[in-house]
Write a structure and sequence with these properties.
With 265 residues, this protein is of the alpha/beta class. 39% of the residues lie in helices and 10% in strands. It has a domain of 152 residues: HUPs (Rossmann fold, 3-Layer(aba) Sandwich), CATH 3.40.50.620. It contains 11 helices and 7 strands. It binds iron/sulfur cluster (SF4).
């Protein structure tokens, strides 16, 4: 696709640090850039507050887009099966489709905040022929240290939830590690309880439907002290972490993820 005067330049803000830094980075590089935020209706209050502050900083409207239906609607549509890394219907319905509708049939360049120090990830990016994807941080060699610097220099800093969680996304996101669930419990107990309500135990089949593959949220809550103790021991890896969540990001005892480019950059 060649770039013309009518090409739209779209940048999705997830509420995470990388897309926030990219929004700042691109502000003076592409004057016609349009920002958007796909709100799943299950965002953390800190994310919504950060997106508001970003809009003030950027001095440009961040279009709030959504699917028109909420998570519970799609949950019913998927026979009440919780989404998972293998069945990520939430991302498709609540993030990807609203973005594709927002783009319509226009020629679009979508800017994605994948950094130069991350492995390439292809999933959950639109493959519509009118949408071309660019990765400016990869192209320009921007790494995590640069991202931190961009955010600090802007005065925005990191989103507040990074004190207890490593990524943006829904409060119940199945990509959370155990220590992050404990963070949700301690920072937003009412959201932790709401997340619990989605978990089910089928007495007839004995099957459990839980956010975390290995444990229910009740079990994670019961292990709270052990989980916290385990993470306070992590600095023994001799890595310098500014806060607990940096240690979580480096944790290699739990499964790696291939979290999506839409929800969590
Ligand atoms: S943040 Fe997690 S739960 Fe929410 S749409 Fe993305 S993958 Fe799904």
């Amino acid at each position: 696709m060649t770039t013309s005067k009518t090409t739209r330049h779209l940048l999705g803000i997830s509420g995470g640090k990388d897309s926030a830094a990219l929004a700042i980075y691109m502000r003076d590089r592409e004057p016609n850039i349009e920002y958007f935020f796909a709100d799943t209706g299950a965002e953390l209050p800190e994310t919504l507050e950060f997106v508001d502050r970003m809009q003030d900083y950027l001095g440009k409207r961040i279009a709030r887009i959504n699917a028109g239906r909420d998570f519970d609607y799609y949950m019913k549509l998927h026979k009440n099966y919780l989404p998972s890394a293998q069945q990520r219907w939430c991302t498709i319905n609540l993030k990807l489709r609203p973005f594709e509708e927002f783009a319509g049939n226009d020629d679009v360049i979508q800017y994605v905040g994948l950094r130069a120090d991350e492995p390439q990830r292809e999933g959950y990016i639109s493959t519509k022929p009118n949408i071309q994807t660019r990765f400016p941080f990869k192209e320009d060699g921007i790494t995590i240290d640069d991202v931190r610097e961009i955010l600090e220099d802007s005065g925005l800093g990191m989103p507040k939830y990074y004190e207890w969680r490593s990524r943006s996304g829904c409060y119940f996101c199945f990509y959370q590690r155990k220590i992050e669930w404990i963070g949700l419990l301690e920072n937003h107990p009412e959201l932790f309880e709401k997340a619990k309500e989605y978990e089910k135990f089928d007495e007839q089949t004995g099957k459990r439907y839980t956010w975390s593959e290995r444990e229910s949220l009740d079990e994670i809550e019961a292990e709270k002290d052990e989980i916290k103790a385990k993470f306070t021991l992590k600095p023994s890896k001799e890595k310098k972490h500014k806060n607990l969540i940096d240690a979580v990001s480096d944790d290699d005892d739990e499964e790696d993820d291939d979290s999506c480019l839409i929800c969590m950059l």
